[in-house]
Amino acid sequence: MQKNTSTLLQTYLQHQGSPFSDPGFSAPELQLSSLPPAAVPFKIWHALDDGERLSRAQGAFLALTQHLQLVGDDQSDLNPGSPVLLAQLGVARLRAQGLLGNVAAIMNALGLPIPPEEDTLGVVPFGASAFERKCRGYVVTREYGHWTDRAVRDLALLKTKYPA
Amino acid sequence: MNVFLCWRQPSWMVGRKRMRLPANFQWLLATFILLCLLSQVNSQRKGTPRDLKCTTDNLQIWDCSWKAPLGTGHGTIYQVCIDDRSHSCHQLEKANIKIPALSPGDHEITINSLHDFESSISTFILNEKNVSLIPESPEILNLSADFSTSTLHLMWNDKGSIFPQHSNVIWEIKVLRKDSMELIELVTFNTTLNGRDTVHHWSWASDMPLECAIHHVRIRCYIDSLHFSGHKEWSNWSPVKNISWTPDSQTKVFPQDNVVLVGSDITFCCISQEKVLLAQIGSKNCPLIHLDGENVAIKIHNISVSENSGTNVIFTTEDYIYGTVIFAGYPPDVPQKLNCETHDLEKIVCSWNPGRPTALVGPRSTNYTLFESFSGKYVTFKNAEVPTNESYWVFFEMIPNQEIYNFTLNAHNPLGRSESTMLVNITERVSPHTPTSFRVKDINSKAVTLFWRLSGNFAKINLLCQIKINKANSKQELRNITIKGLKNSSYRVAVDKLNPYTIYTFRIRCSSHTHWKWSKWSNEKQHLTTEATPSKGPDTWREWSSDGKNLIIYWKPLPINEANGKILSYNVSCSSDEETQSLSEIPDPQHKAEIRLDKNDYIISVVAKNSVGSSPPSKIASMEIPNDDLRVEQVVGMGKRILLTWHADPNMTCDYVVKWCNSSRSEPCLMDWKKVPSNSTEAVIESDQFRPGVRYSFFLYGCRNQGYQLLRSIIGYIEELAPIVAPNFTVEDTSADSILVKWEDIPVEELRGFLRGYLFYFEKGERDTSKVRGLDSGRSDIKVKNITDLSQKTLRIADLQGKTSYHLVLRAYTDGGLGPEKSMFVVTKENSVGLIIAILIPVAVAVIIGVVTSVLCYRKREWIKETFYPDIPNPENCKALQFQKSVCEGSSALKTLEMNPCTPNNVEVLETRSTLPKIEDTEIISPVAERPTDSSDVEPENHVVVSYCPPIIEEEIPNPAVDEAGGTSQVIYIDVQSMYQPQAKPEEDQEIDPIVGAGYKPQMRLPINSAVEETAAEDDIDKTAGYRPQANVNTWKLVSPDSPRSTDSNSEIVSFGSPCSINSRQFLIPPKDEDSPKSSGGGWSFSNFFQNKPND
């Protein structure tokens, strides 16, 4: 899944034209208010209790599934002739949903409360310009990778705490 | 005027600066005003009102003003009298007056200025020509902006109601940009006044998005009134109106998501509070154009086509990026190959090719609308996918009872639109669906019914359908039928003229009766038609058995088109006047029957039966009518066929039959037969069974009423080949000069063609000679006899030489070529008389010499003893050698001593250029005779020990090319012992001329090439070298100059002995000294042969 996230990001950028498709493109300053960033100081992350850590991941992947759907719709307009990209976005959304279900199951197993599902997108994103759509697609695919990496660490940490 | 300006300027300055200037400057201003007043006072002294000037802004009221007399100011009263129709006078306190427009022509204006009871009068002549028309400055009613299109919309009123109609107005509009009011655009705009107040609109598209900077607009006008003869001037500029953008969202870059034509120029701007560091389109950096504040713009020239997701334009600030996307593409191409047709007369399908790609996808892709003008209905089509060159198509529901359709296909995208039209009568554009549910049903053995289904409403038209009929081994057949159309129904049609019991493959396709396009072919259906009775009886022939008692009846299986079914059995009957014999139900694979008949006058009839019935009988008479005038002819085929021709015979009433068989088979023999009509005179016989090189017999029968008569008997070949065996031949008789040869015939199977003759070759040759050369190499020494008389079976070859081996070869040939050869070696008998003479004469001579010698020795025995065997021999007086010499000279008596173990030898030299005498017995005829004494080239040679042995060696010896005789010669040694030299080395052999080496070996094995070898081995050679006769004298010259003998002059060359030395071995013992024997003459003589010492 981690490998697929980087493939998705590369495929996505290749379809957005220069300078997005230029080698080494990176715009860390681009963020989405509706999508929590995965980057967190290690100390804070480590100090989180399990419930908090899992509920953050759960919230992030809930937002990611909605955002990936949005990006898929955006790209249907911008790149209707690129089935590869659209298929990868669809697969990524399903994976994010799968991971979301797994995290919820773990939280259930640990007896942690599951935060209610909410619409993180709201009504804001509609009517965005093509450039904004490209940028938010970039942020979503980028954060999808980052959150996947973080989820792997989350679960690894959890595994050390609850062996078997 | 100067005063006015002088006065106004300070007041403006004061007005502007009053609030700012400090108080202590006010006295300066007061002083300045005072100075102005003084100046005015001074000017009053100058006198009267002057400079009358009139303007108008509506052509109805003239506004005239003049300059007051110098020195006058407030309180001056002017009386103005105008000399017009009413001659009115006006009392005024100001130096201007508004008067109604005066009629054309000069008018006198009198202005009387009253000031402080002083009066001054000025008179002016006023004409309309002196009046200036200066319109009021226009008022902008509204200035609005469409930011999405970067367009300004301007509205103003022309106030046309106050001007006469049809006056032309020129408007000048100024567009200014940024706070600094840079002039961007100055345009003129013409209108015509229509007598009413009219609001005008003017739009202007900005090259830069209007959001980027503030835009200002001003306007002025110029009225070109035709009825006004005075001076016309521009109005003042209107007050400025401006447009600016108030940010309503986070968007910072303009324009957003625009679609533009490829190649256009476009400006992008970024509204920013921070400094913009970089601007780029795609990955290409662009120079920044600075606008108000930190706002910047970039200008893109000749933009290139975008990829699907558009071209990105990005502005980078210190800590963020802003951007927009531009979509550069093309307007839709005219739809190409628009085509409307119907498959079912229910829906019309229109297809077209989009033409050049627009490079615009998704929401920006081309929308198509298919509009039908008679019904007013339309359908739309949008292809959001990436455009391809494939065809697009839409369905249009047909309108009931409408046949003519006028379609317009509109294509539009954000950059433009295009259209194609098509007027179509849809009943002429029917391309039916593929027929389905296709099946076949029998009617009878020659007709079937075809059923199929065709979806569609064809009730109003006729259908044209095409049936494809395929039959094995036959050309396909197409049949067209026309049927009444139906609505979604099954159709049926009968197909006749078929063959019984035949597999057919049917397919069908349809079109409208007017035919525009065929449907696709339906699935194919295979069908076997039912059987019918055989249409003909089998082709029949008969043969009498070899004993003449049984008649064998043959018939051929019926071809499938005549059998009309599967033949189950045959009935055969033989009927004569008295009786009828029949064989019934002969099962099919059998095509032959044998009937015992008492006499030969029967009519045989054969009937074939299948499941439906019997064929008509085929009849043939059994009788053979004899023909005495018959001979066997020959024929050769052409290609794989044989052509037989004959003369027409009126007696032959039914037909001719040619039967044939392999002629090597026993009787009755029948391979096949062929019937030809009685009016033919030729038949081409063709069969796969014919093989080249096989003899076939052909028999031509003519048919008469009562039977068949054999007319001709022919043997022939499809193709003649060469015989595969050689004729077997034997030698019947040999004599000394002739051979009688006899041969046998070659069997027909091995002849493989008609024998045309024999070739007989003969030459001299021996069996074990390795050089059995080809017979066809054109050698002159081969004699050939061509025997074309085939009855000849023997041949006598005469004029041969006796005691000679001959190589005989016999070959047979046909037109197909020469057969293999058979060869044989035969030795002719020797000439017995010559042999006897050759033996007796030497014996007699030897006896006589012996007797004489014995008598002499006996008589002179004392002298001999004294001379040769003294008690004390004196070496100096030794005459032994002399004795030997003298004894041997001219005498060969001693030879007989050595002959005891030997049988007589024959040396025969044949075919020399000069006719040489036959040499028999080398003792008698030495080569002296053959060697001319002038053979100066001959060098002394090593002596040879010759020991002849009895075996007969037959060798063919070619004479060396350098032989003096010049021709080839053949030497046959009989009873000569091997004379090969043991020391002869193979290497030496190889160095010798190959011709030499191939011949007479004892002579050739001479170590003559290397002087070194020769000198080293000379002694040995002298001891052991064999017989070295006359052959190859030139090779003797090959000795090198180092050789002792090579220094010898020609005169010193010693002749060499002949093979006759075999008879006196002691004379052949070489001398011990190294001195070469010398000869006084160039040739050699018998006596020289015995000279072992030089001139002793």
From TrEMBL, chain A:
<protein>
    <recommendedName>
        <fullName>Cardiotrophin-2</fullName>
    </recommendedName>
</protein>
<dbReference type="InterPro" id="IPR009079">
    <property type="entry name" value="4_helix_cytokine-like_core"/>
</dbReference>
<dbReference type="GO" id="GO:0005125">
    <property type="term" value="F:cytokine activity"/>
</dbReference>
<keyword id="KW-0325">Glycoprotein</keyword>
<comment type="similarity">
    <text>Belongs to the IL-6 superfamily.</text>
</comment>
<dbReference type="GO" id="GO:0005127">
    <property type="term" value="F:ciliary neurotrophic factor receptor binding"/>
</dbReference>
<dbReference type="GO" id="GO:0005615">
    <property type="term" value="C:extracellular space"/>
</dbReference>
<dbReference type="GO" id="GO:0002052">
    <property type="term" value="P:positive regulation of neuroblast proliferation"/>
</dbReference>
<keyword id="KW-0964">Secreted</keyword>
<keyword id="KW-0217">Developmental protein</keyword>
<keyword id="KW-0202">Cytokine</keyword>
<dbReference type="GO" id="GO:0007405">
    <property type="term" value="P:neuroblast proliferation"/>
</dbReference>
<dbReference type="GO" id="GO:0005146">
    <property type="term" value="F:leukemia inhibitory factor receptor binding"/>
</dbReference>
<dbReference type="Pfam" id="PF06875">
    <property type="entry name" value="PRF"/>
</dbReference>
<keyword id="KW-0732">Signal</keyword>
<dbReference type="InterPro" id="IPR010681">
    <property type="entry name" value="PRF/CT"/>
</dbReference>
<dbReference type="GO" id="GO:0007166">
    <property type="term" value="P:cell surface receptor signaling pathway"/>
</dbReference>
From TrEMBL, chain B:
<dbReference type="GO" id="GO:0019955">
    <property type="term" value="F:cytokine binding"/>
</dbReference>
<dbReference type="InterPro" id="IPR040817">
    <property type="entry name" value="LIFR_D2"/>
</dbReference>
<feature type="domain" description="Fibronectin type-III">
    <location>
        <begin position="537"/>
        <end position="628"/>
    </location>
</feature>
<dbReference type="GO" id="GO:0008284">
    <property type="term" value="P:positive regulation of cell population proliferation"/>
</dbReference>
<keyword id="KW-1003">Cell membrane</keyword>
<dbReference type="InterPro" id="IPR013783">
    <property type="entry name" value="Ig-like_fold"/>
</dbReference>
<keyword id="KW-0677">Repeat</keyword>
<comment type="function">
    <text>Signal-transducing molecule. May have a common pathway with IL6ST. The soluble form inhibits the biological activity of LIF by blocking its binding to receptors on target cells.</text>
</comment>
<keyword id="KW-1133">Transmembrane helix</keyword>
<feature type="region of interest" description="Disordered">
    <location>
        <begin position="1037"/>
        <end position="1096"/>
    </location>
</feature>
<dbReference type="GO" id="GO:0009897">
    <property type="term" value="C:external side of plasma membrane"/>
</dbReference>
<dbReference type="GO" id="GO:0043235">
    <property type="term" value="C:receptor complex"/>
</dbReference>
<dbReference type="Pfam" id="PF21177">
    <property type="entry name" value="LIF-R_Ig-like"/>
</dbReference>
<protein>
    <recommendedName>
        <fullName>Leukemia inhibitory factor receptor</fullName>
    </recommendedName>
</protein>
<keyword id="KW-0812">Transmembrane</keyword>
<feature type="domain" description="Fibronectin type-III">
    <location>
        <begin position="723"/>
        <end position="832"/>
    </location>
</feature>
<dbReference type="GO" id="GO:0005127">
    <property type="term" value="F:ciliary neurotrophic factor receptor binding"/>
</dbReference>
<comment type="similarity">
    <text>Belongs to the type I cytokine receptor family. Type 2 subfamily.</text>
</comment>
<feature type="domain" description="Fibronectin type-III">
    <location>
        <begin position="434"/>
        <end position="533"/>
    </location>
</feature>
<dbReference type="InterPro" id="IPR048497">
    <property type="entry name" value="LIF-R-like_Ig-like"/>
</dbReference>
<dbReference type="Pfam" id="PF18207">
    <property type="entry name" value="LIFR_N"/>
</dbReference>
<dbReference type="InterPro" id="IPR040901">
    <property type="entry name" value="LIFR_N"/>
</dbReference>
